[in-house]
Amino acid sequence: MATFIALVSALLVSSVYSAKALSSNYYDHTCPQAESMVSRTVKKAMLSDKTVPAALLRMHFHDCFIRVTPFCLAFLLGCDASVLLNSTSKNQAEKDGPPNISLHAFYVIDIAKEEIEASCPGVVSCADILAFAARDAVSLSGGPTWDVPKGRLDGRISKANDTLQLPFPTFNISQLQQSFAQRGLSLDDLVALSEFAASLQSVCPMHNKVKNAGANMDTTPVAFDNGYFELLLQGKSLFSSDQALLTNPKTKALVSKYACSQEEFEKAFVKAMIRMSSITGGEEIRRHCRVVR
Question: Which domains does the chain carry?
Fold first, then answer.
């Protein structure tokens, strides 16, 4: 599933910095059907557009990774659905920032949100819906599933310039390590989710109209597997930030570990996804994911 990993990139943020406590049973009484609604929506979208899973994973990463500053908790917003907000006449939002121009499949979140609002109005955040969708993107593509921590709130701030905080495809291992460490991320996390999603802005489908474009990172581009790591060891990578993983003894060892074991890769991936998605600091529950209340 190298394409997914490639599109997800570095995805994680340490839960030690989480600004809001999340729980596994948050919607058990208020909207128990929320996750199944999202799963059905993602599955239906995948039938007509094979790029949807990778798009949703990448969208989740781009939402969670920016404006995360462990040294200033007041601005630690992370996974707050700010990537879903539309630009206005007074503000250019994240989705229109340089690295995000090629993000697509926003309509999947819109459809899921509309269905959930019809059953549980004002209860489920857009941030939680995006986290559910990213999980479903993996599980419905043959990968592992996991219990997504729930209870995020949606943020009200979305600025295009903030997207420049995403890792660059030209980063060397020191730059990658620094970028992740600033967000409470380890080298293990970095390798588990491979590090080049941000760079795919130049080759991924534009908006949500192109359904078969993109760059294949391995021989199984629409399946969740460890093929990316196998090719990386063979020197077959698109970006210098990928090859950089082989320049550090620890990260090289992890690449080899995941290349040899799908099971070890999946365990590390799930752990990383949960940590990343657990950092949040929003303020509201939007009724429509593209606009603040």
Answer: 2-277 (1.10.520.10)
